[in-house]
Amino acid sequence: MTQRTWAAVVAVPLFVALGFVMALVGLPFVTYAPGPSINVLGDNGSKPIIEVKGHQVFRDKDGQLRMTTVSVTERNARLDLFTLMWTWFSKVDAVYPFSAQYPSTGSQQQDTHEGQVEMQTSQESAVVAALTQLGYDLHPQLKIADVTQGMPADGKIEPGDVLLRIGGTKITAGTDVGKLIAAVPDGGSVPVVVDRGGKRVKVDLTPVEKDGNRLVGITLEPHYDFPVDVTINLNEAIGGPSAGLMFALSIYDVLTPGSLTDGNAVAGTGTIDAQGNVGEIGGIQQKIAGARRDGAQLFLVPAGNCADALGAQNGSMRLAKATTMKQALATIETWSADHNAPLPSCTAGTAS
């Protein structure tokens, strides 16, 4: 038997075994697919998604402002080579490295929790952006967004508490809370006062050293005492910050007479901050495909996602670049009056 024949005899079984192993063993990737889009002007069960108290509401029965989602495989999903290859060749689905979606450590429960925290933050930012656009002058405080398990604040401070005082210092949005915590003597404690549902609660916290910093285990975010009570009733399984723009537009539409979309279907995505700036998100191509599938005629694209949006399967659905809430409002109004009107667009010359 020749040397070449021997090599073939050895190599073929090894190649077959390697292919068999790769077909069965999970690989470090995740897949993205178009998720459902939701008309935020509609209802969630018996309640409107945008629920308002303290202000006249104007329900748009015909128009649609659709938030878009992406279906992402969970961190413990086992994706074999054949599954990934099938997804790779899809026109709308996508494959990404595991590290692009999830940190190396953590659990599905932690991922879900973080997504819910991001969702709550995006909803509050959307309310601020919408009310500011309507002319309200809002002044922020600091609220507890999250409490780290096992840290000094765990069991004493709760998410949603509004931070009022640390020691003898009254807390405002501009207070350097980290500096106040760092000033606590080694082994000492500091009194912390919070507002919990209208009741003042005082606790003592003893900071700990971690990675060279003195911490108590709280994450802060701006909090506003809103003149209008807005509640967003959405399925808790949906997380993340990417619906911020569509929340803000829907709140604005509910609080103003007439239909912002003139009875048409507009979809979009993008984070939003308190100043109304629109930020980029993940899965733009899958969100565009999902919106087109669900009948949207116009899609608002964050400027930072323009380059990827150019390769999306948008069909006849128009894509318009969105940098701020104010610009997005103007774009919708222009398009509603004339579907062929020039819009801020993601063209090859303007893609980010």
Strands across the major sheet, in which order?
A: 6-1-5-16-19-20
The helix-strand sequence is HEEEEEHEHHEEEHEEEEEEHEEEHEHEH
Number of strands: 20
The CATH class designation of the largest domain is Alpha Beta
Question: Mean of residue pLDDT?
Answer: 89
CATH fold assignment of the largest domain: Ribosomal Protein S5, domain 2
Tally of domains: 2
User: How much beta, percentage-wise?
Assistant: 25-35%
CATH architecture of the largest domain: 2-Layer Sandwich
**Helical proportion?**
25-40%
Low-confidence stretches: 6-11
Global structural class: alpha+beta
Number of helices in the DSSP assignment:
9
The Cα radius of gyration reads 25 Å
Bulk shape: globular
Describe the structure.
This protein is an alpha+beta fold and 352 residues long. The chain folds into 2 domains: 33-73 and 107-135 and 227-337, Ribosomal Protein S5, domain 2 (2-Layer Sandwich); 140-224, Pdz3 Domain. It has helices spanning 3-24, 81-88, 98-101, 108-133, 177-182, 244-255, 284-293, 306-309, 325-337; strands at residues 29-39, 43-44, 47-48, 50-53, 64-72, 94-97, 140-147, 162-166, 169-170, 190-196, 199-205, 208-210, 213-215, 218-224, 229-232, 265-268, 271-272, 278-279, 298-302, 318-322. It has a 6-stranded mixed β-sheet with strand order 6-1-5-16-19-20. Helix 4 runs parallel beside helix 6.
